């Protein structure tokens, strides 16, 4: 039973770490989904992978390398602005290139076969106290930064022309947000890995936006659903022995499907037209 | 006091001169229809009044002060965009993000803010739209919400950039009548740009016609005149009046056909 398992240190750390990261990922992800920038979030995780493996190759802490690369790419994306056509092509190319480089760095660094899987898919059951402390500090910093920019960010995201007329700098808010996203991605990677960052940063917020039409409830719901998804995923993983990241991801998909189903059902009852 | 004053203004965008040495005055409470072909500078002029476009020459004054960005006395309706970010949000939430939206920090909405939003929604008759997701609203209903939003903060001037695009004729009339009524009730100066004169004919006090770097402002009869318009279009223009409508023709074609006329919206 879960309560027995909670006696173990590593399980406690897993719940704590995933709880913190899920709260951050769900909250930041809400804005990411709203702005239609989920692909950018995905690309940042891949760039982070190259940063982590590159840092490990030259003997530096992988987390540091990941954060530096992710921040750099985030700022670059933000400064490039929002309305480049063919943007998804450029992002896709960068994404593939980053993954390729990461693989190269791994290859050149003979000793890291195990770390690759962890980096790519996450391993929340192997979180150390040091990593947990890191995640707590990063998490608080990320949420504080997001809170500080949330007002102009919302305005710029929902009504860019009007926001600009009222004095908001679209480029500044966009870039600052990408910094926040980079930090959130760097944290999410520790839990679900590079390839599954979507599970926490896109699934729960997308579900939340289907379930409620209001802002604050939506953000809180996104964070709450992400936490529930992560914790339930760990519980299932501990009982079935399946990888935690798989359980978390699968739950995310189920959650989103359930939200879609509920939202269609509600439309049918209320009689509002289906989109 | 004058609401908006242009004093020998020259405006250029991307190397192209939009306005050249133009001076004009718009009085408080005046409803001005802004007309002219695509690219004549209707949007650019509004952006300049909003302090978003630098002037090559001259000055623009808004309510006696130089035009600056983020002037709270101006309510602005940008050209309608396709439903994009945050489409699933309720109208009320959509409106609330503009309150003090340029300041950093959390988007807290006070009780006073909520009361203001309610008042603005009531004024445009959009209270019943506030709880519905904006993605579920028709173009006309979304436009109504935007107008409510422009009224938040009790502006003295309203700039509406082609608000009638993609609305059917009935919705167009509703919007024009609504803005006209609001302008009267609240004493607002209004700049309302449109593609066709007939859309705003009944509502305007004066007309501002742009073309080829020049501008003509005056009553409908003064401006919608073959000599004046031929100069603005740099082409021979005929003006035909029939059954309460006015048609501006060039070479047998009506100029400024609303680009959505043929799409059956």
Question: How would you describe this structure to a colleague?
Answer:
The complex is a heterodimer of chains A (275) and B (265). Chain A is mainly α and 275 residues long. In chain A, 82% of the residues lie in helices and 0% in strands. In chain A, helix 11 (203-211) runs parallel beside helix 13 (244-270). Chain B is an alpha/beta fold. Chain B has helices at 42-49, 91-96, 111-123, 139-151, 169-186, 197-200, 220-223, 226-233; strands at 2-13, 16-27, 31-35, 57-62, 65-66, 74-77, 157-160, 189-193, 206-211, 214-218, 238-242, 245-250, 253-254. Chain B has a six-stranded mixed sheet with strand order 6-7-8-3-9-10, sandwiched between helices. In chain B, strands 2-1-4-5 form a four-stranded antiparallel sheet, with helices on one face. In chain B, strands 11-12-13 form a three-stranded antiparallel sheet, with helices on one face. The longest helix of chain B has 18 residues, at 169-186. Chains A and B meet through helix 7 and helix 8 of A and helix 2 of B.
Question: Which helices and strands, and how do they pair?
Answer:
The complex is a heterodimer of chains A (275) and B (265).
Chain A: H1 2-5, H2 9-34, H3 38-57, H4 62-80, H5 87-108, H6 113-121, H7 129-158, H8 160-165, H9 170-192, H10 197-201, H11 203-211, H12 215-240, H13 244-270
Helix pairs in contact in A: 2-7, 2-9, 2-11, 2-12, 3-4, 3-5, 3-9, 4-9, 6-9, 7-9, 11-12, 11-13, 12-13
Chain B: E1 2-13, E2 16-27, E3 31-35, H1 42-49, E4 57-62, E5 65-66, E6 74-77, H2 91-96, H3 111-123, H4 139-151, E7 157-160, H5 169-186, E8 189-193, H6 197-200, E9 206-211, E10 214-218, H7 220-223, H8 226-233, E11 238-242, E12 245-250, E13 253-254
Parallel strand pairs in B: 3-8, 3-9, 6-7, 7-8
Antiparallel strand pairs in B: 1-2, 1-4, 4-5, 9-10, 11-12, 12-13
């Amino acid at each position: 039973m879960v309560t027995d398992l909670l006696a173990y240190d590593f399980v406690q750390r897993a719940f704590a770490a995933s709880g913190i990261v899920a709260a951050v990922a769900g909250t930041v992800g809400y804005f990411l989904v709203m702005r239609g920038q989920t692909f950018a979030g995905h690309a940042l995780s891949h760039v982070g992978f190259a940063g982590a493996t590159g840092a490990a190759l030259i003997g530096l802490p992988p987390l540091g390398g990941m954060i530096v690369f992710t921040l750099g790419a985030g700022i670059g994306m933000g400064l490039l602005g929002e309305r480049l056509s063919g943007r998804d092509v450029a992002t896709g190319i960068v994404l593939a290139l980053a993954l390729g480089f990461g693989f190269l760095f791994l290859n050149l660094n003979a000793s890291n076969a195990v770390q690759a899987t962890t980096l790519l898919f996450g391993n929340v059951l192997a979180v150390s106290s040091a990593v947990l402390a890191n995640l707590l500090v990063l998490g608080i910093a990320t949420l504080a930064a997001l809170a500080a920019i949330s007002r102009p960010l919302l305005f710029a995201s929902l009504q860019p022309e009007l926001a600009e007329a009222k004095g908001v700098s679209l480029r500044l808010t966009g870039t600052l947000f990408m910094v926040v996203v980079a930090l959130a991605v760097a944290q999410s990677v520790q839990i679900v890995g590079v390839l599954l960052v979507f599970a926490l940063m896109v699934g729960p917020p997308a579900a939340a936006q289907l379930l409620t039409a209001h802002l604050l409830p939506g953000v809180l719901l996104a964070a709450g659903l992400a936490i529930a998804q992560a914790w339930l995923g760990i519980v299932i993983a501990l009982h079935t022995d399946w990888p935690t990241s798989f359980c978390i991801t699968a739950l995310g998909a189920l959650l989103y499907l359930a939200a879609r189903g509920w939202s269609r059902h509600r439309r049918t009852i209320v009689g509002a037209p289906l989109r | 006091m004058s609401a908006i004053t242009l004093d020998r203004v020259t405006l250029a965008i991307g190397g192209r001169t939009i306005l050249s040495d133009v001076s004009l005055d718009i009085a408080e409470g005046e409803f001005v229809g802004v007309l002219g072909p695509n690219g004549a500078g209707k949007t650019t002029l509004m952006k300049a009044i909003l302090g978003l476009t630098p002037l090559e020459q001259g000055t623009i004054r808004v309510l006696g002060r130089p035009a600056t960005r983020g002037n709270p006395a101006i309510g602005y309706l940008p050209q309608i965009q396709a439903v994009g970010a945050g489409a699933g949000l309720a109208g009320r939430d959509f409106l609330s993000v503009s309150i003090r939206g340029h300041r950093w920090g959390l988007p807290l909405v006070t009780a006073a803010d909520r009361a203001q939003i309610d008042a603005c929604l009531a004024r445009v008759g959009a209270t019943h739209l506030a709880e519905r997701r904006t993605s579920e609203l028709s173009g006309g209903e979304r436009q109504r919400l935007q107008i409510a939003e422009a009224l938040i903060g009790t502006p003295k001037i309203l700039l509406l950039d082609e608000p009638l695009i993609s609305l059917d004729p009935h919705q167009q009339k509703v919007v024009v009548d609504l803005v006209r009524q609001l302008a009267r009730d609240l004493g607002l100066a209004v700049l309302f740009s449109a593609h066709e004169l007939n859309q705003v004919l009944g509502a305007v006090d004066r007309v501002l016609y742009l073309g080829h770097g020049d501008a003509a402002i005056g009553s409908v009869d003064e401006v919608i005149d073959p000599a004046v318009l031929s100069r603005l279009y740099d082409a021979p223009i005929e003006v035909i009046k029939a059954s309460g409508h006015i048609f501006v023709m060039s070479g047998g074609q009506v100029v400024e056909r609303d680009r959505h006329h043929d799409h059956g919206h």
